Amino acid sequence: MSSVETSPGLGGVDWLVIVVYLAAVIGLGVWLGRGQRNTRDYFLGGRDLPWWGVAFSILATETSALTFIGVPAMAYAGDLGFMQIVLGYAVGRVILAVMMVPYYFRNEIYSPYA
Known about the structure:
Layout: H1 12-32, H2 39-44, H3 51-62, H4 65-76, H5 84-106
């Protein structure tokens, strides 16, 4: 005899939440994408994004779920060597902002940072 109970699957409320979520994501994408005229606008946001929006986007892209959950867990376990990642993030952002982004903008290079 197995003591594992089986789940009956997704119910009506579950499917409703999924459908509402998908509709909201699609609606938000259509609404925010209405000002895009070409692929340059799509990839570069018309170069009209606020600095904090770009910064959070880059940070979210580079920080995986494993990093977000694993680094605090490793630090709690006593391995503070992983905490250097925070310093690396800060130094890397300064180098990008001061050296790389102005170069990308001047030369119209398409990059995640420009």
